[in-house]
Specification:
About 40% of the residues lie in helices and about 15% in strands. The chain is of the alpha/beta class and about 300 residues long. The chain has a domain at about 5-155 and about 185-210 and about 275-290: 3-Layer(aba) Sandwich (Rossmann fold), CATH 3.40.50.720. The strands form three sheets. The chain has a seven-stranded parallel sheet, with helices on both faces. A two-stranded parallel sheet has the order 7-9. Helix 1 (about 15-25) crosses helix 7 (about 185-200) and helix 8 (about 220-230) crosses helix 12. It is globular.
């Protein structure tokens, strides 16, 4: 049986390299879509041999990158302009760029679009970089492009170096207060996205799946998990203190990206950023990690325990 040909958009990012590895682990033939200025060295070291030059803000480049002659079985899109990890990223990538990508995918006849989306993005109307994911889901439906969207919780390991330094000092850094919120360990998310591209049946298309841990987390549950796994006391510390957040709220009136971030923190702190259907995740991916189990794997992966 021939391996599936998958093209990955956002392949050089923090999550993207994990998606590529998960696809390789599942036997896929991976093509990474990159810009001409992208650093491909990490992907090349992983064994990626195929690259397509494409920029989501350049329609002509997408036509060539996703040329029908390539015969791609699926596209996995995890690019995020809001985070601006790469030169050329901007919030426009999350709106205009994704529309361009959907149009090019449809024109190329690629039978499956796997979208990294966000929990409850349809309700986050005041958080642009969340709600833009819902707009992309809607656009996929309008264009009749077969898709599956994985609505993810917050990345648990969003910044390894930052987290590890604080965890070594007995501190769990948190963005949010006591409200429960959905979260996910990125190697798990990468594996789910790869499975969505390679092995989920067509009957699951044209829908979304909430993905994350078995229960919402908060500072107290994270403290308890790290304390048990590493057998030492922990305390939680807000990454942005109340005083600093108040200052940010003032400047957010003048800086759109900052306004978006402030709106996100306020929205998540209302307790709405949680999975409403964990059963479907378990059905499709056979996995529903507990907080302690995921924290234990994180600690093992980062050599904090054996």
């Amino acid at each position: 049986m021939n391996s599936k040909k998958i093209v990955v958009v956002g392949a050089t990012g923090h999550l993207g390299v994990k998606i590529v590895q998960a696809l390789l682990d599942q036997g896929a033939d991976v093509t990474a879509m990159v810009r001409a200025t992208s650093n491909k060295s990490k992907l090349e070291a992983m064994g990626v041999k195929h690259f397509a030059l494409g920029d989501m803000m350049n329609k002509e480049s997408l036509k060539e990158a996703l040329n029908p002659r390539e015969g791609f079985d699926a596209i996995v899109a995890s690019a995020a302009g809001y985070t601006a990890h790469s030169k050329g990223d901007s919030p426009a990538t999350d709106t205009i760029g994704y529309k361009n990508l959907v149009d090019a995918t449809k024109a190329a006849g690629i039978p499956r679009f796997v979208l990294l989306s966000i929990l409850e993005c349809d309700k986050a109307v005041n958080v642009p970089h969340f709600h833009n994911k819902y707009l992309t889901e809607t656009y996929l439906q309008e264009k009749k492009q077969p898709y599956i969207a994985l609505r993810s919780g917050a990345f648990f390991d969003w910044n390894d170096n930052f987290m590890l330094k604080r965890i070594s000092k007995g501190v769990v850094p948190v963005f949010f207060t006591k409200a429960g919120y959905g979260t996910i360990y990125t190697p798990d998310l990468a594996r789910y996205l790869a499975m969505a591209a390679v092995s989920l049946p067509d009957s699951e298309l044209n829908s979304y799946v909430d993905v994350g841990w078995s229960k919402p987390v908060n500072s107290e549950s994270l403290i308890a998990a790290f304390s048990k796994v590493l057998d030492k006391p922990f305390r939680a510390k807000l990454i942005v203190s109340g005083l600093v957040f108040g200052i940010l709220c003032f400047f957010a009136m003048f800086i759109p990206k900052l306004k978006d971030m402030v709106a996100m923190v306020r929205w998540v702190n209302t307790g709405v950023y949680v999975s409403k259907d964990t059963a479907r995740q378990q059905k499709l991916f056979g996995d529903l990690p507990t907080t302690e189990e995921a924290v234990r794997r994180y600690c093992k992966d980062h050599h904090l325990i054996k």
